[in-house]
Amino acid sequence: MASLPSLLLITRNLPPLRGGMERLNAHMAEALAVDYRVTVIAPRGSFVGDDKRVRMLRCPVPGLVAFLAWAFVAGVFRALVDRPRWVLGGSGLVAPMVLLAGWICGASRAVYLHGLDIVVPNGLYQRVWLPAIRKMHRCIVNSHNTRDLAVNAGVAADRVSIVFPGVTLPEKPPEADPERFRELRNLGTGPIILSVGRLTRRKGLAEFVERALATLIAAAPDAQLVVIGDDAPDALNASGMGQRERIEAAARKAGAQSAIHLLGAVPEDELDAAFAAAAVHVFPGIDVPGDVEGFGMVAIEAAARGLSTVAFAVGGVGDAVEDPASGTLVPAERYELLVEALVKRIKQDGNDVRDSCHRFAARFAWPVFDRAIRAALTKDGRA
Question: What residue spans of 198-285 are helical by DSSP H?
C-alpha cells in the first residue's frame, strides 16, 4: 500500500484556546489525516485531541510574535524535509508563512479564511498579508459573506471554496439541570434570553442593551438577559477590550441592571444548562469598520441544542440562521423588529422549535465538514 502524501498545517488557533476557530483547526487536522500524513506547526501548549495520526510541532517559547517568527523557520524546514503536497494555513494570520513554505518546496498553498482575516484594519497587514492570501492556490472560506469579501479583496473567484464550520450534534440530550442553573444564578422562573460568545464590539450587546432591553422587558416583564463570555484580549482585532464595561454602562443607562446577568466564561456543563434553560438565543451583531462577523458559529451551536436564534442579518450570519427553521433574521439595527421577534420566539412551542433547529444543525455536523474540507484540497494541488 502506497504511503499517504504529506500535508503541513500552520496555525495559531488550537486548544487549549477556547473558541470556534480553535475547534475548527483541531478538527480540520484530524479530518485531513484520513488522506494525508499531517504535521501541525502550532504555538506552545497546543494540542489536537488524541489523534496519533497528527504530528505536533510546538513553538518552544510563548507569545504571538515568537510563534510567528518560529513558524517561518519551522515551516520552511518541514517543507524541505517532508515535501508536502499541501501547505495549509488555519487562518489568514499565517498566510505569509504558508506562502514561503509552499513556494520553497513547490507545494500547493491554501488558507482557511474568516471574515476578519480580510478586513483587519492594519496597514502592514493589508500590504503584506493580503497579497500573500491572493497567491494561495485555494482559499477556503467560512461563509458566502467571507467569499464576497475575499473576491472583493482580489482573490480569484475560482480559487475560493466555501466550507462551513462544523458542530457536534449531541447523541443524546446533555445531562443538564436548567432548574439548578436558574437557582445558582438567581434567575427566577421567567424566560431566559441567552447570549453566548466572546465579548467583542461587533457582537452588538452594548447597543442591544442600551437601545432594546428596556423595551423588551416592558413586553416581557419577567424576562432575563444572560450573557456568557468574556472580553477577547487575544483577538487579532483588539476591539473586544472593555466590552463588559460598555454593557454594564448601557444597562445602567437603560435602567435595566436587574434584568441582565453577565456570567463571564462558564464550565461546559453550566453552558449546557444555560442552553437548556433558555427560551431563545439573541445575536444582535452590528457592522463595525475593520471587523466583521464571518459566520456566527454560536447560532449553529444553539440550534444543535434545539434553541432558536434571533439575529441581525449582518456579515455571514445569514448562513448560520435559517429563517424560520432555526430562528429569525432581522434587518440590521432594526431594534424594534428584533424585540418583536424575541417576544414571538419566547412564546413559541418548545418541541416544534427543537425539532426544526436540530434538522437545520444536522447540515453542519462534523462529518459534513470533513467531506467538504477534504474535497476542497484537490488531488493535483491546484484549483
Answer: 205-208, 214-219, 243-254, 268-277
